[in-house]
Amino acid sequence: MTPIVSIKNLSKTYASGFDALKNINIDIARGEIFALLGPNGAGKTTLINIVCGIANRTSGDIQVDGRDIVRDYRIVRAMIGLVPQELSTDMFETVFNTVSFSRGLFGKPRNPQIIEKVLRDLSLWDKKDNRIMTLSGGMKRRVLIAKALSHEPSILFLDEPTAGVDVELRKDMWGVVRALRASGVTVILTTHYIEEAEEMADRVGVIAKGELILVEDKVELMRKLGQKKMVLDLQVPLDAVPASLAAHGLERADSGNKLIFHYDTRSDRTGITALLNDLRDAGLAFKDLTTTQSSLEDIFVELVRNSK
Fold first, then answer.
1. What's the pTM?
2. From edge to edge, which strands make up the β-sheet containing 211-217?
3. Is residue 26 scored above 80 in pLDDT?
4. Whole-angstrom Cα distance, residue 133 to residue 140?
5. 3-class secondary structure, 285
6. For domain 227-293, which architecture applies?
């Protein structure tokens, strides 16, 4: 199936010589939630701005539903809804009017029923006559989403959608995003909240210093999250792992004073019982045993560290 967004060899270099993006390649499937994860200044917003036509690329090819973003700009832009980081909207206008105005910007005819549906879906209908300035920060961000959805786009870009939003409202907005995906909208979001990517995304891309260093299915990431590490603090240090223990894939650490065993908590058998039996048979005793589990944050930090 043809991806709804296809980015090939995309680079962005500013006049100063700064490389904001370096040879980015991503294909995004229709109807998926794709999370672009990275620290501040990694290039997430630059990437979104280029796809949405707000910034120019230096090189590369970008197609949206098979159309070039420059040659077919008007068609492509009508397919895209963008929710920027900044809470920028007319503070003196009502919620209903500002969302209706956004629909008109794309040449769409007036349709109060569609505006009502968007506002109801975002729990904003009871605020429709309120001026934007009277809303909380979380509600203002929902208004930005409503504006982005007012012209019925098939692709929604969310740039740090829950920045500055409290934990409870953040979870509410996760539900909103999942509902949008269920309705057929492709959602592409940037975030530096690890749990946001873990909670919502079908796939996760990690970007650092303008380079895409990982794109992976979340199921595979969850498999990695199931990996735990057991550290055995030995009574007597080892010069080498005995051949009888080779099948367990043990690692020597701390000059042979420790053995490290990796296992999967999601598998039917972790292999711990067999390892302990083999340790006993090999005459190896340990003073202490500890276990730790990797997290998506651990993976992210390690990837970013390795990219430096």
1. 0.74
2. 80-83, 155-159, 186-191, 33-37, 203-208, 211-217
3. yes
4. 8
5. coil
6. 2-Layer Sandwich (3.30)
Q: Which two tokens stand for residue 19?
A: 């490389």
d(CA 96, CA 93): 8
The secondary structure element, H or E, covering residue 194 is helix 194-200
Element (H, E) at 227: strand 227-234
Query: Would you kindly state where each structural domain of the chain is located, as residue ranges?
Result: 5-222, 227-293
Measured between alpha carbons, how far is 72 from 62 in angstroms, rounded to an integer? 11
Residue 54, sorted as left (phi over 0), alpha (psi -120 to 50) or beta, turns out to be: alpha
Report the distance separating Cα 218 and Cα 107, nearest Å. 38
Give which of 23, 28, 20 is closest to 9, Cα–Cα: 23
Domain 5-222: top CATH class: alpha beta
In the structure encoding, which two tokens stand for residue 127, read together? 């605020």
- pLDDT tens for 158-184 read 988 877 666 777 777 788 888 888 988
* pLDDT, position 214: 85
Sequence-ordered strand ranges (E) for 211-250: 211-217, 227-234
Tokens of 118: 């968007």
The whole-number pLDDT of residue 160 equals 83
Segment 128-138 mean pLDDT: 91
pLDDT at position 23:
96
CB 202, CB 218: distance < 8 Å: yes
